[in-house]
Design goal:
By secondary structure, the chain is mainly alpha-helical. About 50% of the residues lie in helices and about 10% in strands.
């Protein structure tokens, strides 16, 4: 009986099934889009999504765990290079399955499985450019920590002047105050940029 057994065996023994999923995963990482049967695509999604999540953390441990699943150095390099940068801000749902019809011969239902962030046509239609957004990646603690330098506090109050403008009503007063606030913010940001540049040079 297979009660409660949710694993799709795909008509194969375990070793054959694992080898199939490993090859499909490496092909998907290499080509970003592959065509296969719907059953294999669904099994591949379950297999590869945890690996994509783990690739966001660029540590030696993560690399070794993912290599144990893929057994392919080139796929590992691509996964931790291009792919992990693109999926850094996506909280899951990295692949998309699109049914494409039935195969001639045996009538198997076919599907295209692709990495969501690599469909340039769809991204262009929606107007979301993933490359322009700021990406964050968690990095491992294997490297040496940089020496922390204390940033000097910049006193901007001496440079800023409060100007009095004659105003007739409250709306004009609010506009004047907001413009003064914006000027102060710009001065503070410029001073902060100068301090960070000095710290980089030192």
């Amino acid at each position: 009986m297979r009660h409660g057994d949710k694993v799709n065996n795909l008509g194969r023994k375990k070793s054959h099934r694992v080898a199939l999923l490993k090859n499909l995963a490496c092909s998907l990482i290499e080509h970003k889009r592959i065509i296969t049967t719907v059953a294999k695509a669904k099994a591949l999604r379950i297999y590869i999504e945890p690996l994509l999540t783990k690739s966001k953390t660029n540590t030696t441990h993560s690399r070794r765990v993912i290599f144990s699943y893929l057994q392919n150095k080139e796929a590992l390099k691509t996964l931790f290079g291009v792919i992990s940068e693109k999926i850094a801000t996506r909280p899951g749902g990295y692949v998309r399955i699109i049914k494409t019809g039935f195969r001639k011969g045996d009538g198997a239902q076919m599907a295209m499985i692709e990495l969501v962030d690599f469909n340039e046509i769809l991204l262009a239609k929606t107007g979301t450019d993933t490359s322009s957004k700021k990406r964050t990646r968690r990095s491992g603690g294997s490297g040496k920590k940089a020496e922390t330098t204390v940033n000097p506090i910049v006193d901007v109050t001496e440079e800023t002047e409060v100007k009095d403008y004659p105003v007739d009503n409250e709306e004009e007063a609010v506009e004047v105050v907001e413009s003064q606030i914006e000027e102060v913010k710009e001065d503070v940001s410029e001073a902060a940029d100068d301090v960070t540049e000095e710290n980089k040079e030192a």
